[in-house]
Amino acid sequence: MRAYLDIETSFSGGISVIGIYRPDTGTTQLIGSGVHDLNLYTALAGVDTIVTFNGTGFDLPVIRRRLLADLRNDFGHRDLLYVCRKRGLRGGLKVVEQTLGIARDSAGISGYDAPRLWERYEIHADQCALDTLLTYNYEDVVNLATLEALLDATPVVQPTATMRRLMQ
Q: The YprB ribonuclease H-like domain covers which part of the protein (predicted)?
């Protein structure tokens, strides 16, 4: 069983939201004080592989530092960032989604906005900011499943020397 995972962080580097999408149970979002290792492992019960986008460089190391949860040791991991790179898809998740025609309701919101939204919620109790952040995170994890399906359905084309020159 696969789980699609993405985190949002605060300005201090803490984890504000962990989003997990599982095709069998839907989406779980751990928020604020609910972000801890017991809830994370409970949400991942029965999962054998975690799928991320840049989880190798960001999500999993932050979780390991902040929660002392070593997901790379406890689960298989597939980082779609590297699958995209092998297919010539460059940019972050939102750029790749746009390239492949994956739509978002939260278009225009980026990872740079996530800490601002969290701060507005924490400091000003701005429920609209939290709702926007949760929608953004929800689309991150659900779209990872869509992205993986598209990548797995698309045959790999090895670039020719001419194609490599054009991509530079």
A: 3-149
